[in-house]
């Protein structure tokens, strides 16, 4: 009877040694995937915060620079694209367009010294600047979470668990093409 029990114990130990790493890898992937989701939500929250600030900023500037209708239209269109973004790539492209439009708006502001001294405008720009910093940090946190998740997903033996349970690769948050270009503003039509 003892001889029959020995192979069962060996099989039980082998199964135990296979199940524990499988459970551990699965739980690690779930945790990292949740961190990616949380980081993505944090980006959304900060982008929404910026989107909520923009109408106040635009309305303040409109009173001083009403002839800059194209910039106001670009900002409104970019905000709409950002609100309608359905994935990280679309969101990054819309975010880049909105950032470019805001940069052009702030360049226009340079031509209106009385606007720059307006307390409401100064408060809004300080809030917007703080939000831009939060967005940058949220993007960095998201990319860190995605990198950790994708790395774990590709490592052995987690790659086997990832493919068995459908853990898909997550995209990094990347700026759209042309995002590093300085926006051009032409003041020659003024005056």
The secondary-structure element order is: HHHHHH
Q: What's the oligomerization state?
A: single chain
Mean pLDDT equals: 84
Number of DSSP-assigned strands:
0
User: What is the radius of gyration computed over CA atoms, rounded to a whole number of angstroms?
Assistant: 26 Å
Poorly predicted residue ranges: 182-191
Question: How many independent structural domains?
Answer: 1
**CATH class assignment:** Mainly Alpha
Membrane topology: Single-pass membrane protein
Subcellular location: Membrane
Keywords: Membrane, Transmembrane, Transmembrane helix
Organism: Clostridium cibarium
Task: Give the topology.
Elements: H1 2-62, H2 69-83, H3 88-109, H4 113-116, H5 119-154, H6 158-165
Can you tell me about this structure?
Residues 182-191 have low confidence and may be disordered. The N and C termini lie far apart (103 Å). The chain is rod-shaped and about 95 Å long. The protein has a single domain, classed as de novo design (two linked rop proteins) (Up-down Bundle), CATH 1.20.1440.20. It has 191 residues and is an all-alpha fold. Helices cover 76% and strands 0% of the residues.
Provide key terms for this protein:
191 residues, mainly alpha, de novo design (two linked rop proteins), 6 helices, 76% helix, disordered C terminus, transmembrane helix, LemA-like_dom_sf, transmembrane, LemA family protein
């Amino acid at each position: 009877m003892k001889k029959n029990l020995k192979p069962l114990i060996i099989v039980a130990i082998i199964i135990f040694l296979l199940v524990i790493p499988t459970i551990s890898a699965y739980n690690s992937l779930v945790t990292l995937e949740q961190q990616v989701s949380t980081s993505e939500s944090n980006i959304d929250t900060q982008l929404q915060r910026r989107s909520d600030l923009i109408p106040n900023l635009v309305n303040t500037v409109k009173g001083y620079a009403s002839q800059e209708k194209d910039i106001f239209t670009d900002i409104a269109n970019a905000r709409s694209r950002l609100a309608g973004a359905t994935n990280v790539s679309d969101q990054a492209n819309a975010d880049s367009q909105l950032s470019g439009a805001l940069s052009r708006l702030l360049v226009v502001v340079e031509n209106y010294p009385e606007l720059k001294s307006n307390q409401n405008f100064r408060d809004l720009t300080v809030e917007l600047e703080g939000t831009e910093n939060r967005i940058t940090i949220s993007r960095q946190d998201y990319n860190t979470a995605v990198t950790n998740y994708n790395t774990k997903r590709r490592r052995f033996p987690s790659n086997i668990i990832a493919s068995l349970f459908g853990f898909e690769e997550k995209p990094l948050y990347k700026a759209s093409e042309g995002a590093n270009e300085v926006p051009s503003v032409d003041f020659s039509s003024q005056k």
